[in-house]
Automatic annotation (TrEMBL):
Functions as a peptidoglycan terminase that cleaves nascent peptidoglycan strands endolytically to terminate their elongation. The keyword Nucleotidyltransferase does not apply. Its main location: membrane. It holds the Pfam family YceG. It is an enzyme of class 4 (lyase). This is Endolytic murein transglycosylase. GO terms for cellular component: plasma membrane. GO terms for biological process: cell wall organization; peptidoglycan biosynthetic process. Keywords: Cell membrane, Cell wall biogenesis/degradation, Lyase, Membrane, Transmembrane, Transmembrane helix. It catalyses: a peptidoglycan chain = a peptidoglycan chain with N-acetyl-1,6-anhydromuramyl-[peptide] at the reducing end + a peptidoglycan chain with N-acetylglucosamine at the non-reducing end. Its EC number is 4.2.2.29. The keyword Lyase applies. The chain crosses the membrane at residues 7-27.
Length: 315
């Protein structure tokens, strides 16, 4: 009995000793940092952060992070300055105390809109952006330095010292991560699908409608029918086209006047819309329109006009 009590006391002493070591190293001991920036990306782990901050990532740290539910990392650039304990480092990341510039590219944004947002954030003027784009090697078609379609919609966070070229490289690398060049050997076919995906993205937002609308546009292309998408001319005008402009405007982006796809994508679509084009649902339908959040499909122009009247979209 005495031996059991003795062993138990020794065990408690060891546990207490380990706890005190952990408490000191985790909450009391501090390391000094002078403007150290840590870029947390997808897949970054706490072990990598510890390594970058020259901290020991022990088994007790792992247990604490797991039990406290603090092993979920928030993406962003974190700046560490002054004397900080491990606990303060983790708390800073947990609270998403991000240091840096946040660039958000919404789905369907045009390159012009991306340039304007970058300029507003101090990430480069349009002139600087175009100059840097000319120096970037890119595996997909981009005639005349036109990168429309390749600015992948996502939220990017940069250090305040980031250069315009670094911003562009980061955004384009994200596109290549989503669309690896080796997966698409026929680059022109890929580019045509990207053009169509950008049009589909501009026409409908519902995930279920995208493959259906993609199927209609593909069928029109197959039979030599014009796409007749208002979105293509809207891309050039940067506003909704008037009915007279759809008939008279001679821009190659006017799909009411010219057959086939436009010269470039008309925006930057997400992967799911590109996937909708690759898995398009081709049926007998040749017409569609959206009204009050619902998309209507028709086989003939007469049926199309009738549904527009019945829905209230056309008086």
């Amino acid at each position: 009995m005495k031996n059991t009590i003795k062993l138990f006391n020794i065990f408690l002493s060891i546990l207490l000793f380990l706890f005190l070591i952990f408490f000191y190293s985790f909450f009391v001991s501090k390391r000094e940092y002078k403007n150290v920036n840590i870029d947390v990306k997808r897949g970054t782990t706490f072990s990598q952060i510890y390594k970058n901050l020259k901290l020991n990532y022990g088994i007790l740290d792992r247990i604490y992070l797991k039990l406290s539910g603090r092993n979920n990392l928030k993406i962003g650039v974190y700046r560490f300055d002054g004397k900080l304990s491990k606990y303060e480092v983790i708390r800073k990341i947990k609270r998403s105390e991000i240091s840096g510039i946040r660039l958000t590219i919404p789905e369907g944004f045009t390159s012009k809109q991306v340039f304007e947002r970058m300029n507003a954030l101090g990430l480069g003027t349009e002139e600087e952006i175009k100059k840097n784009l000319a120096e970037i090697k890119f595996p997909y078609p981009h005639k005349d330095n036109n990168f429309e379609g390749y600015f992948y919609p996502e939220t990017y966070i940069f250090a305040e010292t980031v250069t315009t070229k670094e911003v562009l490289e980061t955004v384009l690398k994200e596109f290549l991560r989503r669309f690896p060049p080796e997966k698409y050997p026929d680059k022109q076919k890929f580019y045509d699908n990207l053009k169509l995906a950008s049009i589909v993205e501009a026409e409908v937002s519902d995930r279920e409608d995208k493959p259906k609308v993609a199927g209609i546009f593909l069928k029109r292309l197959q039979i030599g029918m014009r796409l007749e998408s208002d979105a293509t001319l809207k891309y050039v005008l940067r506003r909704q086209a008037k009915s007279g402009e759809l008939k008279a405007n001679m821009s190659p982006y006017n799909s009411y006047r010219f057959s086939g796809l436009p010269p470039t994508p008309i925006g930057n679509p997400p992967y799911e819309t590109f996937e909708a084009v690759e898995n398009a649902e081709i049926t007998d339908n040749l017409f569609f329109f959206t009204h009050d959040g619902k998309t209507y499909y028709s086989k003939t122009h007469e049926e199309h006009l009738q549904k527009r009247k019945e829905s209230g979209q056309m008086k």
